Amino acid sequence: MNLGIDEAGRGCLIGPMIVAGIVLDEKGREELKELGVKDSKRLTRKRREELFNAIIERSKGIAVAKAEPLEIDSNNLNALTYRKVSEVISSLSWLNPKIVTVDKVGKETEVIELIERLGFVANVVHKADELFIEASSASIIAKVIRDNIIERLKLKYGDFGSGYPSDPKTIRWVKDLVSKGEEPPNIIRKSWKLLQKYAPSFYVEKVI
């Protein structure tokens, strides 16, 4: 059995980062490959949601860790990402996966040492979610969970788009808050430097 781990929302301005891990045996990996599981970014939202239950049904175990904006603002993002990865590995270590595959971000030394300390083989590589079906599956789980969280946040805070800095709707929503003189809600990552341009009153410099 192999454990694949991936995240969703790491680069967002709004909302949490979700890190998901899934343990699959050889049969599960083959079945999911035949079903068309691939990196979540290469699938439509509808297709991701269709595959979500199929992935869960074929998994031997799933774990999810969440980092809220305040936690992201208070920590180095790479270190925090690997801390959440560590939480996922610890939650699934009882299944004794042979290999732990994680998408590489920043310096991978910390997570490699953790994986090896637990007695597993570390496979920390760029684009793991494209190359390994267990990481692709984890990327879909993380993305669907985050998308559902974002939809619930929109019901409370209005339609802010995808929450990514590249989304014009997201930027318009932030600028609208500023123009109304409203306080920034806690769903915004206030340490994102983009705010210096569009909402300087919201920006809080990260001190680590």
General description of the model:
The mean pLDDT is 94. A 5-stranded mixed beta sheet has the order 3-2-1-4-5. The longest helix is centred in the C-terminal third of the chain and has 25 residues, at 133-157. It has helices at residues 26-35, 45-58, 69-73, 77-92, 109-117, 128-131, 133-157, 168-179, 195-198; strands spanning 2-8, 17-24, 61-67, 99-103, 121-125. The chain has 208 residues and is α/β, with parallel strands linked by helices. β4 (99-103), α5 (109-117) and β5 form a beta-alpha-beta unit.
Attribute tags:
208 residues; alpha/beta; 5-stranded mixed sheet; 9 helices; 5 strands; 15% strand; globular
Task: Tell me the quaternary state.
Answer: single chain
Strand coverage percent: 15-25%
Category by helix and strand content: alpha/beta
Largest sheet: 5 strands, mixed
Topology order in helix (H) and strand (E) letters: EEHHEHHEHEHHHH
Instruction: Please report the total strand number as a whole number.
Output: 5
Strand order of the largest sheet: 3-2-1-4-5
Helix share bin: 40-55%
What is the mean pLDDT?
Answer: 94
Q: Total number of helical segments?
A: 9
Q: Name the poorly predicted regions.
A: none
Question: N-to-C terminal Cα separation, in Å?
Answer: 38 Å
Shape: globular
Determine Rg (CA atoms, Å).
18 Å
